[in-house]
Sequence to fold (582 residues):
Amino acid sequence: MTPDYGFTSVANLRYGRSPRLDAWLLHFMTENNLDHAIDPEKNASPEQIRFMVALPDEQSVYGPFSDRRLPLLLSSRMDAGLRREYHEKWVALVRLVRRFVGDRALRKRILLLCSHKYRMIQATPIIIPSRLMKRFITIFLSLCGEVDPYRGIKARYNAQAQEAVESPELDRMLNVCPDGALACRRLSDFRFDLDMVELTRLMILSTLSGLWTGPYYQAACETIRDKDLEDQRATRLLAETFTRGRNKGLKVLYIPDTSGGLMLDLRIIRTLIRQGHRVMLALKEGFHFDGPTFWDRFHDPVLHRQLDGAHFMEDNRASKNALLRALREHPLLIISDGTREELNFYRTSVTFARAWKEADLVLAKGEPQHRRLLRTAQEFTRDILCFHRDEDGAFSLRFKPKAESVVKFSEGELLGKAEELIAAMREARSQGQTVMFYSAIIGSIPGQTSMAIKVVDTFVRDLRAKLEHAYIINPAEHFEEGMDADDLMFMWETVQRSGMIQVWRFQTAQDIERSFELMGSRVPPVWAGKDSTFSTGCTKEMRIALDMQRKYPEMQIIGPTAERFFRRSEYGVGKFSDQVLG
Fold:
């Protein structure tokens, strides 16, 4: 029997309590194929997870399941609740195969293979049920050659839901005046109150699956009464949440639930855009039953029309700069979450992780999102609003604030810091000083970040003492607690593209040797032979430097030759330690 590890919540999961605990956690993560060290191409790094999950320390582990499920997975015996969840996944697989695989031999092969996996998991119930479903789907798609067997079903759901959205029945429901006159103190307040009423009604309607799954939408409409669309508690909660975005608008990450309901989600999104917000809509990368995917628009004319004007970001590893630039230019940005399963931060794309980090609010729909985000003591880095239908069919809207410990640097704050530096550079140039930018290794050598800052600071102080009338920018002097690599690279790129830099110096091996000489010590082995070409951050900066030199030919670039930098592709996501050479 598995020992009692003392875990009562996913928020308690962490390494370092004992070797036995560490071994079990590693066993759990590797069996579910979620460990970054084992499969870094598929699984998010700890730094990327921290874009979304507020982990208290470096040893903390994120568990992608609810608190309710934690004791089931910790026990070596098959709990009745876990058995029921496993069985639900098995039944879903059997229905999928019987519905879409016509060849009898192939159908039997798929079911027998999956049954072997199923029996093995029942013997050692450590697999998260959603991960079991992912394995089943992968086997099904691989053996039957299907890409998306639900493509026609989803198109039918969307068509019927859109017909309902455009119907006079729903138009009347959405536009009927609310019971009791809303207090009109100011026109702007009155307009905001009406917006919140409209949002509430749209959210309630978007969770009524009978509108698109039933025989015809009118049958569902006949059962909806006007008072069913009134929920004063939900309206108040929406007003409290969106009040802070009334002047400048919020960046909203919207996570939908199912096709069909997506047509009403798009009405919600248009309402948010009309109110001045910008929305990032995250769709699935591939087939997950009736979940809408990033590629559905190519096969669904109704969805294609409704998404007209939206910008699709196909890059699943978009940089912070690219994401924010696209969001500034397009009020509706469509991204892929990078997965073919229920929300799983270990498998979401870099673009999704950055979208979450840049959002002011996450608006998540559906029971799976509610279970994964709200039915857990785990805290997250952004405010979350979840809405769905509970087990009794009642509409539920709940808010979960971001962790108090989370520090968020907004785009405006980072640009403000960049503008301060640019103003100082401009002032230095007006006084006849030469503006020099120094690019150096900071986090490229794991465990050496503090030493790297000391190396840079020592060298820049020496350089300032030697060079007359030189204004030297040392990036290590402008770090603030809470800023990660994404924040810094965004801020520095703004500074670097200002056109104020006259000399761009990149750290050489001789610079590093000089720093250790000034510190009165020999060069440690880990630093021997290193220079700025060992940094993916500096590699990115060399590309910017070359781009700026084409604009301003008089700008000088000093240091290793450009060709030596381009062995690397990008800096590590959200961390100061660079990716290793491929």
